Amino acid sequence: MSEVFSARTAGPTATGAEDPDLARARDGDDAAFTRLVQPLRRELHAHCYRMLGSTHDADDALQDALLRAWRGLARFEGRSSLRSWLYTVATRTCLDTVETRGRRALPVDLGPSSDRAVIGDTPLTDVAWLGPYPDAGLGDGPAGPGAHYEQREAVELAFVAALQHLPGNQRAALLLFEVLGFSAAEIATTMNTSTTSVNSALARARRVVAEKVPPATQQRTLRQIDDARVREIVTGYSAALERGDADALVALLTEDVTWSMPPLAHWYRGIEAVTDFAVRIPLTICGNWRHLPTGANGQPAVASYLRHDGSGPHLAWSIDVLTLRGGRIAEVTSFIGPGHFVPFGLPASLS
Q1: What predicted TM-score, i.e. pTM, was given to this entire model?
Q2: What residue stretches are annotated with the RNA polymerase sigma-70 region domain (predicted)?
């Protein structure tokens, strides 16, 4: 796509009197430009994550988008809000990224579950994996007056994973309409297409998402569960792994629980298979665990640290995102790799 962006982009809000920093930025003042975009960086970054399914890709896309915006700012005439214009730039930048690589996946996308623990499972390095997103980067409530999703609902694992099954144009249309509250006409301008095409993309995207996302969001589920129970689940999960207590762990799980560990391809479904996996691998042969509570994708999560031998520090191992249902854990998604810890501001090791 072209790096030249139209200044006639519409958006959910309109600008009033011109910000003095905008005039300075147009004249080449990069400090003024930084002041303009700083309040919007978090929400733009979250948008890039929803589009791309990776915090690292979101970092790169946002940096590229802001560079494009800086270079094209002289052409911004203020006929829309700066925020709307920046979302246009960020969306087009993400669409360029989507065109150059395949969708991001979870193990459940690659094949059927395993009935028994797979010893010696090795990472798949030729798959672009979905990654977790730190709650610290999220706001609350809808981003626009017409938005249907809350900001936290729109980064839940099930929703972001479902988005990865959509072509880039459908992904962008759904996010701009349902999460950010843009109208179909505004989206058509953003994506250089017709309103008819946008409405068609929205209809197809909604069908796919409806098939893949549970009817009850995690935000609704968490509101129905007492906060103390959520803390109890997180603490109990951590303690059971640290003690090697299979009974305590199983007591926290639903009968149809799933456990996956990207970048490992094998995953497990159902209490029998998950128990066999847990007993034979994390509770037995992995080593000694320590945990820190955290939040990812608007869901409770645990940062897992592992010590393989009897001495030395516990090293960053995985971010375990917990999906709850009825006061129990229905899914564990363990994102393995120390690189996931950096965006969460977590230490690389525990002494």
Answers
A1: 0.91
A2: 36-103
